[in-house]
Design brief:
- By secondary structure, the protein is mostly helical.
- Helices cover 79% and strands 0% of the residues.
- The protein is built from 19 helices and no strands.
- It has helices at 10-38, 43-52, 55-58, 60-69, 73-94, 100-129, 132-137, 139-168, 181-205, 219-234, 239-248, 251-257, 259-265, 277-306, 308-320, 324-332, 337-366, 372-401, 403-413.
- Helix 1 (10-38) runs parallel beside helix 8 and helix 1 runs antiparallel to helix 9.
- The relative contact order is 0.14.
C-alpha cells in the first residue's frame, strides 16, 4: 500500500507564504498611495487610484470556486507569485517611459487580481494540507507572518524610498514630482525580486494542497454554488443588520487609511506634519503596525475572557474614538517625532484591539451555516468594499475640507 505523501514542515512554507501574500497586497493598496503622492498627484487622485486596487480583493469570493476547479492549489500559488514578481518588474521598467501612469495603473489593476488569486490558493493550501489541530497550532504563525508584510512594505520600503531619494539620488525630500521615479523604480525591483525568490522557495517546500470535497466540476457547478450561497446568506435572520454592520464597522478606518499617511508627509503650509518618507516609514509603518499587532493580541484575549456580546460596543468605541488623535495633531501640528509616534500608536493600537470584534462577529454571527467559509468571505468582502469606497472619496473630501475639518468629519461620521 502506497504511503501518504510527506508534507514539508509547515514552518518552511506558512510564514513565507503569508508574508508574500501581505507584501503584494500592501504594495498594491497602501505603498502605491505613498508613491502616487511622492510623484506629485494630489491627495484626491492618489487616494482614489490606490483604493481602486482593493476591488479584486473585495470580490475574490466570486472567482474563488473557479480556482478550485483546475490544477492544484500550489500550481496557482506559484503561477500567481511569478506573475506578481514579473509584474512589479514591469512596473519598475515602465516608470522610465513617457506617460507611464496609464501603463502603471493597468499593470497594478491586473496584478491586484493575480494577487487576490494568490490569496485564495495560499489559503487553500493551508486549509487542505493541515488538519484542524495543525491549523490551530500555526494560526498564530500565520497571522504574525502576514503582519510582517505590512511592516516590511509600509515601514521598510517606504523608509528606503526616502533614503534613496535624498542620499543616493540627491533629491529634495520636500519636493514631490518626477524626481521620485528613480527611488521608486528600485523599490519595485526589490519587491519583484523578493516575490520571485519566494516562488522558487515555495516550489521546493510548499505542499500541493488537496481538493476540497465540494469542489465544483464545471463552471456551471461553480455558478450554482455561488448562487445558492448568496440565496442562503440572504435567508439568515437579521441579515440586513449583519450586512450593514459588516460594511460600516471600519468606516472611520477607510476614511483614515490613505489620508493618515498623506497628513504625515504633506508640508506644514498645507496643514500636514511635513515628515519625510523615512520618518513616515518608522512612525506609521513600524511602530504603528507593531501597535496594531499588540492591540489585536490583547483584544483577542479580552473577547475570549468576556465574550463577544458584552464587549462588542466597547470594541466599536475602541476602533472609532481614538481617531481623535489625528484631529488633535492637525490642530497643534506637533514637530516632536516622539509625540507624533505616540499619536499614531494610540490610534493603531485601539484599531487592532477593536478589529478583533469584527472578525469574531463574522465567525459567530454571519458565517455559520451551509457555506461557512463563503459567507465569511462575503463579510470580509463587504469590509473591503467599505475600504475601497471610503478610500476613493477620502482624498477629494480632504482637499475640499482641509485636514482639521476633515478629521472632524471622520469623528462625526463614526
Amino acid at each position: 500500500m502506497a504511503s501518504a505523501p510527506h508534507v514539508k514542515h509547515p514552518l518552511l512554507w506558512v510564514p513565507t507564504g503569508y508574508f508574500t501574500m501581505a507584501l503584494a497586497y500592501m504594495t498594491l493598496t497602501s505603498v502605491s498611495a505613498i508613491m502616487f503622492k511622492n510623484l506629485g498627484l494630489d491627495n484626491g487622485t492618489a487616494a482614489e487610484y490606490a483604493s481602486y486596487l482593493i476591488l479584486a480583493y473585495t470580490i475574490k469570493p466570486l472567482f474563488a470556486p473557479f480556482v478550485e476547479m483546475y490544477k492544484t492549489k500550489k500550481f496557482f500559488v506559484l503561477c500567481a507569485q511569478m506573475v506578481v514578481g514579473l509584474g512589479f518588474l514591469g512596473v519598475a521598467l515602465a516608470m522610465s517611459l513617457p506617460n507611464y501612469m496609464l501603463i502603471l495603473m493597468t499593470l497594478f489593476f491586473i496584478l491586484s487580481f493575480v494577487g487576490a488569486t494568490q490569496d485564495i490558493a495560499s489559503d487553500g493550501v493551508y486549509v487542505t494540507s493541515l488538519d484542524s489541530k495543525a491549523q490551530s497550532l500555526y494560526c498564530g504563525v500565520q497571522s504574525l507572518s502576514w503582519n510582517i508584510g505590512p511592516i516590511v512594505a509600509m515601514g521598510g520600503l517606504v523608509y528606503l524610498s526616502g533614503k534613496l531619494h535624498t542620499e543616493y539620488f540627491g533629491h529634495d525630500a520636500a519636493v514631490f514630482g518626477p524626481d521620485w521615479i528613480d527611488s521608486w523604480r528600485i523599490i519595485f525591483f526589490i519587491v519583484a525580486g523578493i516575490t520571485i525568490l519566494m516562488a522558487f522557495w515555495h516550489m521546493r517546500v510548499m505542499p500541493e494542497g488537496a481538493r476540497a470535497e465540494n469542489t465544483p466540476k464545471s463552471a456551471k457547478d461553480a455558478m450554482l454554488i455561488l448562487w445558492d450561497s448568496f440565496v442562503t446568506l440572504l435567508q439568515k435572520k437579521d441579515i440586513w443588520i449583519m450586512l450593514a454592520f459588516a460594511f460600516l464597522f471600519r468606516l472611520s478606518i477607510g476614511f483614515l487609511e490613505k489620508i493618515g499617511p498623506f497628513f504625515m508627509v504633506d508640508p506644514i503650509e498645507k496643514g500636514g506634519l511635513g515628515l519625510t518618507n523615512e520618518a513616515l516609514g518608522i512612525v506609521y509603518g513600524t511602530y504603528g503596525l507593531a501597535a496594531v499587532v499588540l492591540g489585536s493580541l490583547l483584544g483577542g484575549m479580552f473577547v475570549a475572557k468576556r465574550g463577544l456580546k458584552p464587549t462588542l460596543f466597547l470594541l466599536c468605541c475602541a476602533i472609532n474614538i481614538p481617531n481623535v488623535t489625528f484631529l488633535i495633531m492637525s490642530i497643534y501640528l506637533p514637530t516632536d517625532l516622539m509625540v507624533i509616534t505616540a499619536g499614531v500608536a494610540i490610534e493603531k493600537f485601539f484599531f487592532g484591539f477593536g478589529s478583533v470584534g469584527f472578525m469574531i462577529y463574522l465567525m459567530q454571527q454571519l458565517a455559520p451555516g451551509k457555506y461557512t467559509t463563503t459567507h465569511y468571505a462575503f463579510g470580509t468582502g463587504l469590509m473591503g468594499l467599505c475600504m475601497m469606497v471610503t478610500g476613493a472619496i477620502s482624498g477629494h473630501l480632504q482637499e475640499y475640507m482641509g485636514y482639521i475639518n476633515y478629521f472632524i468629519f471622520v469623528m462625526v461620521a463614526t
